[in-house]
Amino acid sequence: MALCKELTEYRSKIMKLLCNDQEIVDLITDTPNSAIPNRSLMYKNIFPYAYTPDVTKDTNNYLCFRIYIPEVQNKTFIFFVIKTTSAPVMGCGLI
User: Fold this and answer.
1) N or C: the chain end with fewer CB closer than 10 Å?
2) Per residue of the chain (95 residues), what is the pLDDT tens digit?
3) Neighbour-count burial of 9, counting CB atoms closer than 10 A to its CB (0-12 exposed, 13-18 middle, 19+ buried)
4) Contact 91, 23 (CB under 8 A)
């Protein structure tokens, strides 16, 4: 159960970091020097899953990511993979 709580925290932290990144916000909004943090992009253009949840008729920029945890080595160390719609990022974390 603790791992589910941590996954939610990781997703939230990643969403906040993406909304605070100037280059990412500029690319998604298609506006140079956009105001950051742009939290309005959360669940509108940036999604913590590998798909956009709603069918849309409009063309827009989206960033989707998903966290995979292929193994838990012990109660304090996990291996995780963050996959985006473009390329995966791997890392390790402490619980």
Assistant:
1) N
2) 456 677 788 888 888 999 999 998 998 898 899 888 899 999 988 888 877 777 777 778 888 888 777 666 666 666 666 666 544 444 444 43
3) exposed
4) no
